[in-house]
Amino acid sequence: MIEAGLRRYEEINDEIKATLSKRNKCTVKDVNGQRYIGCALDEGKTIEIYGTPGNDMACYLNGGKIVVYGNCQDAVGNTMNGGEIVVHGHSGDAMGYGMRDGQIYIRDNVACRGGIHMKEFREMRPVLVIGQNAGSFLGEYMAGGTIVLLGLDIKHGEKLFGTHCASGMHGGKIFVRGTFPKENLSHNIKVEKLNAEDEKELKSYVKKYCKYFDADFEEIMAKPFKKLVPATSRPYANLYTPN
Amino acid sequence: MLKEGQVRIPSGCAIAAIIDRKGNKINGSEIIKSIALMHDRSNGLGGGFAAYGIYPEHKEDYAIHVFYDNADAKKQCEDFLFKHFNIDVAERIPTRKVQSIENGPDIWRYFGRANRVRMKNARLDELEYVAQCVTNVNNSIDGAYIFSSGKNMGCFKAVGYPEDVGEFYMLDQYDAYLWTAHGRFPTNTPGWWGGSHPFNILDWSIVHNGEISSYDTNRRYIEQFGYICTMQTDTEVITYLFDHLLRHHKLPMEVAADVLTAPEWDEIDRMDADKKEYFTNLRAIYSGALVNGPFSVILGSNKGLLAINDRLKLRSLTAATKGDRAYFASEESAIRIICPDPDKVWSVSGAEPVFIPLEIEEEEVDD
């Protein structure tokens, strides 16, 4: 076990690497904003974090697993390649920025720009599951992958997502549960029903969410979901020129 | 020397603030601990603090903090100050030797009241008189910079990392009901003492992470009203905008915040009639005061603490509350290090100002 305290992030990350060269799991306690924890972590390795990890946690994650008992800051899973991040708390801005594969499960909410520019290619299909709600610019410039927004325990007066949702989205899909603020949705987005394949996919993610955070699967699935998808693959084709 | 691309500086400015709504005092070591946690966000070219309620023994006096580049600047500035104010105390601001902070100016402070006769002759109200005196010194005396001019408050800033600046000014010797702090990573402008944050005029102080792309629009607007931007950086203009809107136009704090962060027109189009009229009026009347570009900004004042974000939310800002206290910081960890178990913690979203008012007026504290 590593005690982070107020030590420099370079030192902590070196110790994590040294530990993981000998075994597959490493626990870090009392984390206070140290950056880049779990950067490019490989498959088969797990890091457990207690406290508040710093920016760019699990950036370029390469198949490893990270479990956080606490809240995360900005740019969690930045450009991650694969693996899994489970956060028992909330997350800051730009979560899953440019994510290419793997899955992120957030128990509570995500601040602005969750899933910005997520993308997919053949078998690489990133997934972002959010328990509560999301701030503005959710799925901005999204090019692929799946975002699931469960809307659990939303406080009175709060919305499922903030303004400019899916602005510039041109690929992938967002599953939303229950009522959502249509006025916050960008023009280029279509609202659809889930097909059989979507249902199957969604259920697998919700099951995992329930397992990680001890939530009730039946209760979550009892409320209907909708699917948000881009109406066009070139939403800004005429932004600067009329034709 | 390493070239760009061979070295990475993971920086982006840091801001932090604490307020006790009931006016209870908080030691300077707390805000230093908070801003120090975000060390990597700044690069050693600027740090500073604003503290409210620190001069109770001089609370009726303006506390004027000045940087002097040379003895001649000091003489000229003192001639001016002694003429325009009744100064009771003139002293060097106490500092501690800190290895990383060097080549600084001579730093003085003055406690005094506006000279009544001159003020009446100038036909100005007191605050306008003081503000114009500050502008006058900063614009016309080469090598003298008044960087703090409020009552019962003060700014402390330097070139260095913020935690070193706090040590340099011995802020653990000060207790305030409201603190703001800044760690600087200067981008477009030089890292010099006057250009460090906070920026201040009268009781208003600003710390800012980001960059004002509407700077010249805002500067042209504000200079129509007698302000002159002299500190070679964009943030200064935000301070004057708030002073103008809150003091000259007497706008409520929330309305002034809406002027600076008014929504885009297509968002306004979708609003209900009342809100639409309100924002349309603000954008029409105060088009020159709309601030654009990525920013998170904290305004310190004797009325409370205001935090705003640009409407596209391009800089991070976290808020938390615990009992009578409210906290803001660029990173959540910087709040948790001084408040491990907040009642509520959330990310401040774009164009949704958060104002934490001070619930006790300073005058009432006396009774």
UniProtKB/TrEMBL annotation, chain A:
<dbReference type="InterPro" id="IPR012061">
    <property type="entry name" value="Glu_synth_lsu_3"/>
</dbReference>
<feature type="domain" description="Glutamate synthase alpha subunit C-terminal">
    <location>
        <begin position="25"/>
        <end position="198"/>
    </location>
</feature>
<dbReference type="InterPro" id="IPR002489">
    <property type="entry name" value="Glu_synth_asu_C"/>
</dbReference>
<protein>
    <submittedName>
        <fullName>Glutamate synthase domain-containing protein 3</fullName>
    </submittedName>
</protein>
<dbReference type="InterPro" id="IPR036485">
    <property type="entry name" value="Glu_synth_asu_C_sf"/>
</dbReference>
<dbReference type="Pfam" id="PF01493">
    <property type="entry name" value="GXGXG"/>
</dbReference>
<dbReference type="GO" id="GO:0016491">
    <property type="term" value="F:oxidoreductase activity"/>
</dbReference>
From TrEMBL, chain B:
<protein>
    <submittedName>
        <fullName>Glutamate synthase domain-containing protein 1</fullName>
    </submittedName>
</protein>
<feature type="active site" description="For GATase activity">
    <location>
        <position position="13"/>
    </location>
</feature>
<dbReference type="Pfam" id="PF00310">
    <property type="entry name" value="GATase_2"/>
</dbReference>
<dbReference type="InterPro" id="IPR017932">
    <property type="entry name" value="GATase_2_dom"/>
</dbReference>
<dbReference type="InterPro" id="IPR029055">
    <property type="entry name" value="Ntn_hydrolases_N"/>
</dbReference>
<feature type="domain" description="Glutamine amidotransferase type-2">
    <location>
        <begin position="13"/>
        <end position="359"/>
    </location>
</feature>
<dbReference type="InterPro" id="IPR012375">
    <property type="entry name" value="Glu_synth_lsu_1"/>
</dbReference>
